[in-house]
Amino acid sequence: MLFHGEQLKRFAGAAAMALIVVTASALAPAKASGAQPEPVHVAVLQFRTSGASASHAALVGNYLEMELLQRKEIVLLERGQIKKKYTVREANRYSCRDSSCAVLAGRALSADYVILGDVAKKRGYSVEVRVVSVAMEKIVYSCSADYESEDGAKIAAGELAKKLMLGMLDASAGTSTRAGSAATPAARPVIVDIYANLAVFQPFERLGRLIGTSAGFTCGIRLSGMATRGPETLRRIAAGFDTGVLYAPGIINSRDSGMLVPFSFFLGYRVPVIERIYFIPQAAFGFTYIRFHHPRGDGFDMEEGAAVWGIDPHLRLAALFGRPLVKNILLEASAAFWVLFESPDTPIFLTVHVGLTCRFDAE
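-> structure tokens emitted (363 positions)
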């Protein structure tokens, strides 16, 4: 019995040691799984305004950064770090209107998430912020806050910071269940561009044998972001209308003249190229009023003092490049190839345009 008892004691000791080892092994991964995740790097870009002053929008952005700086889960890229990547002048005016621009900025700044914001003022103030994932290249969370006066900006920023932290944690975990997430984003404004350009006109073939290189102007309106609650790919679709006047002297007789007045409806798609530069391929259709005048002498095969005119359908293919200059003002340049469907000939010509565009948001 004594021998059996000794065996029992040794067995119990060995079992206890095994239990300790197994328990420690089981707890080790549990502790590792409960470890704090790596903090994410976040950049807050300059807030845009609609009715509110730029200084107030900057104040709201500063309050939000102060709130986010207190969060251990993120590493906030401060303004000083942004200015190391960009010149002071460029950093001060750097702002984005869509996720594609934010993705480019995030890559340059080595950020995981980029926060965009809009401050609007009507009777009170309203702030809408959007979180763009640089890796997923899309908006993963959006939320908003309202307050009555400027004194409420700090409180609103605190509320937004709490919501943003939940949204970014959900996005990092691959979920989208929080209220205000990008699954049901707030409506965003339609972007309206009004532009005016100087144009150089170069005719070819039969038309080029009648009139020479000339100049003119064009103007129009372009809408984008019409899918106010849709994905960014739909918001890049642009549509609009433009017109203008192109005037050219005759090749043989400079007193002769030709004038073209096109009316075009176009459809395009805005493509970000690098940082603040965008590209819009366009296809347009419409009608062109064309008029030839022969005062006297050689030149057009017409009676002296005669004028002929017609209205012909046309097709236009264009490539446009643009970039912001200052707030709401953009510089744009484009080249367009035109075909007039006139029987029996089909006149063709090329135009090059350079001008300014004024951009604003339509609620």
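Helices lie at 2-33, 54-69, 79-85, 88-93, 99-109, 153-173, 205-210, 232-235.
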